[in-house]
């Protein structure tokens, strides 16, 4: 069983409502602040991208469903800051001493922003795990979709694609395994593949039999089919 | 790290979202953990400097230069980096080409993965539950909501961005654009055409 964020294929969400191109990048000023605070706090280096994704996914289903996008970001950020010991619950209540924090030396300065954003955080790594699958090879995803290292942990195999048969479309080299990295268990890089699935493998009533869905999946999510 | 704390610390902050952000920003600033000038710089970058105009340059160049297009489809990351488009959320780029036989469309069903250096911050609809839930199961109905109607003989391939690979759609070059400069071509490339939920503009 996965979590509330894993919504691919779900019914009942109603129409997509595209806003016009050229609409403001941030609909509200606080959206921009939420994004910037999240990126700047990430620069303190106390968590990785998989931990921050998992923090959003661990919001209670009730919160996840009713929070807006950046509300999820800022709420998950507050949770991460306390879980990693950067802030205390007292700090969030507003009962903290001001004054320099031990991590203040790591704070992202304005003049360092461009370089930090331009540098990015590549996820490919050398790996001693050989690629087990060839281009075009038939594979099946594991079922159920779940983190096999931590019960209820972070994983990137959506439930809709669990147990489905597809074929290897691209080999991406070895990438950090989110299931491990999100829980501080190390990067555990392993081969990553783009796997293409016919829609008949995924849905009871596909819109068009010729259509396909491609997912990027780690080797441990796959078995030979 | 605690995994499922029933008392989420965020509940200690003000519930109204704008105030929640402000409170957290204030706490972090007072402790010297964030620099408000750095926040302004981040916002300025994504509001004014990085956006779909970057991706449009790449598409226009691919339309104009067959050798560049061939190399782009083979290994996009170093090519777009050479044009200055590299960085956070664009570390591993793959460009997928639309043809009369196949239309590509990009989604992130699990969160909101999107090629920031080429397209900027994703629009609200891309992050919406409706798009995330439906793009993989009924892409043709979703496309219709964007005013895009594909013939049944054009297969739809939906790319669900489940890893750190970021996808950019290379739309088909519109008819009637022969002899246009890269600048003129770039002006026809819409953001949605590079996500796969739209088509390029047709020259007037």
Q: What's a concise summary of this model?
A:
The complex is a heterodimer of chains A (225) and B (204). Chain A has 225 residues and is an alpha+beta fold.
- In the CATH scheme, the class of the largest domain in chain A would be Mainly Alpha
CATH superfamily of the largest domain in chain B: Nitrile hydratase alpha /Thiocyanate hydrolase gamma
Q: Please indicate the percent range of residues of chain B in DSSP E strands (runs of 2 or more).
A: 5-15%
- Major sheet of chain B: 2 strands, parallel
Superfamily at the CATH H level of the largest domain in chain A? Answer: Nitrile hydratase, beta subunit
What is the percentage of strand-forming residues of chain A?
15-25%
Order of helices and strands of chain A: HHHHHHEEHEEE
CATH architectural arrangement of the largest domain in chain B:
Alpha-Beta Complex
CATH topology of the largest domain in chain A: Cyclin A, domain 1
Catalytic activity (chain B): an aliphatic primary amide = an aliphatic nitrile + H2O
GO molecular function, one term (chain B): nitrile hydratase activity
Protein name (chain B): nitrile hydratase
Domain Nitrile hydratase alpha/Thiocyanate hydrolase gamma (chain B): 17-197
List descriptors.
heterodimer; A: alpha+beta; Cyclin A, domain 1; SH3 type barrels; 7 helices; 5 strands; 27% helix; 15% strand; B: 204 residues; alpha/beta; two-stranded parallel ribbon; 41% helix; CN_hydtase_beta_C (chain A); lyase (chain A); transition metal ion binding (chain A); Nitrile hydratase subunit beta (chain A); Elect_transpt_acc-like_dom_sf (chain A)
Description:
Chain A is α+β, with helices and mostly antiparallel strands and about 220 residues long. Chain A has a five-stranded antiparallel sheet, with no helix packed on it. Chain A has helices spanning about 30-40, 50-55, 60-65, 70-85, 90-95, 115-120, 180; strands at about 140, 165-175, 190-200, 210-220, 220-225. In chain A, α1 (about 30-40) runs parallel beside α4 (about 70-85) and α2 (about 50-55) crosses α4. Chain B is an alpha/beta fold and about 200 residues long. Helix content of chain B is about 40%, strand content about 10%. Chain B has ten helices and four strands, in the order αααααββαααββαα. In chain B, the strands form two sheets. Chain B has a two-stranded parallel ribbon. Chain B has a two-stranded parallel sheet with strand order 2-3. Chain B starts with 16 loop residues before the first helix and ends in a 9-residue tail after the last helix. The chains are: A alpha+beta (about 220), B alpha/beta (about 200). Chains A and B meet through α1, α2, α4, α5 and α6 of A and α1, α2, α7, α8 and β3 of B. β4 (about 210-220) of chain A pairs parallel with β3 (about 155-160) of chain B, so a sheet runs across the interface. Chain A: GO terms for molecular function: nitrile hydratase activity; transition metal ion binding. Chain A: It is an enzyme of class 4 (lyase).
């Amino acid at each position: 069983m996965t979590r509330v964020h894993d919504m691919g294929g779900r019914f009942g969400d109603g129409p997509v409502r595209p806003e016009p191109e050229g609409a403001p990048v941030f609909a509200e000023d606080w959206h921009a602040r939420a994004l910037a605070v999240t990126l700047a706090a990430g620069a303190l280096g106390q968590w990785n991208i998989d931990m921050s994704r998992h923090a959003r996914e661990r919001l209670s289903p009730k919160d996840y469903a009713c929070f807006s996008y950046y509300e999820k970001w800022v709420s998950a950020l507050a949770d991460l800051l306390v879980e990693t010991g950067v802030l205390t619950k007292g700090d969030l209540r507003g009962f903290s001493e001001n004054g320099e924090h031990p991590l203040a030396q790591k704070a992202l300065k304005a003049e360092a922003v461009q370089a930090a954003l331009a540098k990015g955080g590549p996820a490919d790594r050398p790996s001693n795990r050989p690629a087990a699958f060839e281009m075009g090879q038939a594979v099946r995803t594991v079922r159920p979709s779940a983190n096999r290292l931590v019960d209820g942990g972070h994983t990137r195999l959506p439930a809709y694609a669990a147990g489905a048969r597809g074929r290897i479309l691209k080999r991406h080299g070895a990438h950090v395994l989110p299931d491990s990295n999100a829980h501080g268990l190390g990067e555990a890089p392993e081969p990553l593949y783009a796997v293409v699935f016919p829609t008949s493998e995924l849905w009871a009533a596909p819109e068009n039999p010729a259509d396909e869905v491609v997912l990027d999946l780690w080797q441990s999510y796959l078995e030979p089919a | 790290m605690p995994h499922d704390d029933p008392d989420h610390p965020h509940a200690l902050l003000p519930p109204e979202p704008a105030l929640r952000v402000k409170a957290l920003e204030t706490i972090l600033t007072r402790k010297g953990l964030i620099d408000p000038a750095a926040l302004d710089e981040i916002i300025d970058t994504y509001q004014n400097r990085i956006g779909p105009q970057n991706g449009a340059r790449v598409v226009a160049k691919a339309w104009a230069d067959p050798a560049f297009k061939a190399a782009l489809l083979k290994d996009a990351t170093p090519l777009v980096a050479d044009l200055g488009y590299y960085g956070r959320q664009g570390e591993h780029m793959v460009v997928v080409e639309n043809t009369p036989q196949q239309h590509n469309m990009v989604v992130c069903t699990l969160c909101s993965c999107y090629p920031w250096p080429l397209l900027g911050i994703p629009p609200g609809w891309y992050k919406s539950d409706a798009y995330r839930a439906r793009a993989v199961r009924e892409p043709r109905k979703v496309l219709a909501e964007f005013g895009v109607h594909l013939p049944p003989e054009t297969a739809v391939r939906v790319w669900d961005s489940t890893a750190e690979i970021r996808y950019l759609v290379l739309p088909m070059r519109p008819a009637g654009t022969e002899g246009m400069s890269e600048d003129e071509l770039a002006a026809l490339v819409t953001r949605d055409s590079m996500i796969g939920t739209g088509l390029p503009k047709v020259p007037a």
